[in-house]
Automatic annotation (TrEMBL), chain A:
Organism per entry: Marinimicrococcus flavescens
Pfam families (alphabetical): ABC_tran, oligo_HPY
Protein name: Dipeptide ABC transporter ATP-binding protein
Lineage: Bacteria, Pseudomonadati, Pseudomonadota, Alphaproteobacteria, Geminicoccales
PROSITE patterns: ABC_TRANSPORTER_1 (PS00211), ABC_TRANSPORTER_2 (PS50893)
Domain called ABC transporter: residue spans: 9-260
From TrEMBL, chain B:
Higher taxonomy: Bacteria, Pseudomonadati, Pseudomonadota, Alphaproteobacteria, Geminicoccales
UniProt domain ABC transmembrane type-1: residue ranges: 89-277
Domain of life from the UniProt record: Bacteria
InterPro entries found in the cross-reference section: BP-dependent_transpt_permease (IPR050366), MetI-like (IPR000515), MetI-like_sf (IPR035906), OppC_N (IPR025966)
Designated name of the protein: ABC transporter permease
Amino acid sequence: MTETTGPLLRVEGLVKHFPVKKGMILQRTAGVVRAVDGVSFELRRGETLALVGESGCGKSTTGRLVLRLIEATEGRVELAGEDVRALDTGALRRLRRKMQIIFQDPFASLNPRLTVGEILAEPLRLHRIVEPAELTERVHELLRVVGLAPYHAQRYPHEFSGGQRQRIGVARALSTQPDLIVCDEPVSALDVSIQAQVVNLLQDLQAQFGLSYIFIAHDLAVVKHISDRVAVMYLGRIVELACKDQLYADPRHPYTQALMAAIPRPEPGAAGTRQVLEGDVPSPLSPPSGCTFHPRCAFAKDRCRSEVPSYRRMADGRFVACHFAEDIPKAEAAVDPEGADEPRYRRRLAVLQAARPQEPQPA
Amino acid sequence: MNATIEDVPQRRSAFRRLFRDGAALLALAVLAVIVAAALLAPWLAPHDPFATTRQPLLPPVWNEAGQWAFPFGTDGQGRDILSRLLYGSRLTLLMGLLSVAIGGGIGMVVGMLSAFYRRIDPFIMRVVDVLLSFPAILLGLAVAAIFGTGVTAIIIALAIATIPDVARVTRSAAVVVMGQDFMEAGRAIGLSDATLIRRYLALNCISSVFVFLTLRFGQVILIGAALSFLGLGAKPPSAELGMMAAQGRDFLFFAPHVATIPSLTIFLIVLCANMVGDALRDVLDPRLRR
């Protein structure tokens, strides 16, 4: 911890355009996909910021841009005051110690040719985190921290179940003692009961080590459980960023309202009141003019078609990118903070809260 | 999982597992015998492989006219075929092994670099295409023109002919591996490109490339035999299996053993190499373990 004041991470105007090439030999650029189109946010120490949105809205790309696993087109990323995008290769590799990632697919994210022990020892050795003599001991400790047993170190990843593998992924991310972990849909490939274990493990580790998370997800129940603040993304932009309670109680952006309404509601009749989002996500190759959400927005006016809404702070402290955020009626379908109107959703939350990670297994 | 946590499972070593595969074990044994016989040729050979006798085209012992002094008979110049076989296997095995090792090593590096650095990929692959369009025989002629004829020239030619094929196979395997999350995970840890290529890319491509190389080993021996036959490789008095088979061609109708015995030896070596390669692939890949 070099700097205790100010946010851990500051992201400003982050842009990533992927060129679309045409032709086999003389490739010319046919257009650009605006995967991330001006994203700004801050992350405090020990905080969890969730990035939510539909598939293809740029949330995973944002996570990778922050870690500089892909190079941004424009913008600024500062981790603990250090400009991540300005670093040379060597300095970036050293900084990687401070920022880690947990992947969505626990089956593809572990090198199948290395044993779990080798996978976990690699970052320790690379960043000289422990003396060579203590390497094995630290690997065993990491395994215990995530609820696995030391003898698992000799095994290969394919010998584990999905949930166990995800724990190994968590242990790998923890091994470098990072400040920031980008969790890229860490539980969406897991069963609900296992999801709960992993989510709770992440929370326990956060409390234990003071980690900050960027939690990328599309499961709003999990997001509600784990996050402090939530950023809703649509077509490469953040449309609303608010504290969890604010956002779930009274979403201000029409897109957030639609997203909240889309949480499954199994009671008969409930679907009748649901606000259903019409149409598909427009192509990020040629986004609509003005507010990119206007073709699907129930409240769209002329101004929305011509003028891009600014990303502004509202009176209650939240950020929103909508011209009429103050005037839009409170959504009926919004899930209330306690989830009292929705038994299934409430049960999911209950499962999340009840399932604590298993006791670390004895050596 | 019913077992309790105290039941630390026993792990079998790679060799143990290899030995459980009966066919592979047999192939390995045959290959070991051939290699040992080739290495011990000076002590095992009953005759001088280059000395001619007055009994050309003597049939092998299982023929009624055969003699125990020459178990596999003699060739067109009356030289003992068994002795020539023992010495010939040395040259053939060495040639196959060296050219596959050199060509395979270079080809693998080229293929992995091509997959890892997408910028240089089109250039490398066009060069590989050009190399692929040369038949190995033509390459052999070109190399012989530069370095002169001989075993070294053959090995160089075969190694060069192996590079583009291996580069292609490696690249296609490596492109799949590059798309996996664990490559990104390795980068996120802060590993250097060299480490990523060595410990992530190479380890995950090597099993498919290895099987290709064992197949290639057989092809290389056959092409080497063809080059010897054309007079580009081993020079006539010295023994080499392919050359021996080629020389037996003239007597195929009245003394078939002169050509068939070395040919069968080549067949046996290639078959066993393929089977061992297949089994090794299964053993080396942790995902295929049972």
